[in-house]
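[Discussion] Sanity-checking designs against the backbone

I'm trying to build intuition for which residues belong where. Below is a structure token string of 153 positions. I'd appreciate it if someone posts a full sequence so I can compare it with mine line by line.
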């Protein structure tokens, strides 16, 4: 048997490839959803004032259309994310064109406020409608909105 020639050990540099640093993506831990008639933002302090908060929609007849603001506060997330918002009937029919994607840069120590004006939302019948907020296609918040016919007095 003939002796095998000795092989030289080839040492590769550990950091031979250029490192790509990415900020860690963390979905928001908290998602607050509020319905209101209007929202204003103070230009100096950036404080938000919400007018006419409500938890249900009460049209006088069906079908009907509603206009309102959706205030969304996200907290506890990190990194660049795409936020979307949908509103559906209890049967799953979309009544609001999907909003977004809204680009958002989240930081764990700073909440992010998103104000969405919803105009001409189709209310075809009474029932529980759902507003669904997603980040990067993952559901992070949901608000059930009862839609009931207003009593005529």
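Best answer:
Here's mine. Compare freely.
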């Amino acid at each position: 048997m003939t002796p095998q020639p000795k092989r030289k050990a080839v040492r590769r540099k550990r950091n031979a490839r250029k490192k790509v640093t990415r900020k860690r993506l963390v979905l928001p831990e908290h998602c607050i959803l509020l319905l209101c008639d209007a929202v204003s933002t103070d230009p100096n302090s950036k404080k938000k004032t919400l007018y006419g908060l409500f938890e249900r929609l009460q049209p006088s007849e069906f079908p009907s259309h509603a206009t309102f603001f959706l205030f969304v506060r996200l907290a506890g997330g990190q990194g660049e994310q795409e936020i979307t918002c949908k509103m559906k009937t209890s049967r799953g029919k979309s009544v609001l064109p999907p909003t977004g994607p809204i680009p958002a840069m989240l930081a764990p120590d700073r909440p992010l406020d998103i104000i969405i004006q919803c105009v001409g939302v189709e209310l075809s019948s009474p029932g529980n409608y759902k507003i669904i907020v997603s980040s990067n296609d993952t559901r992070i918040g949901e608000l059930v909105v009862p839609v009931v016919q207003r009593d005529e007095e």
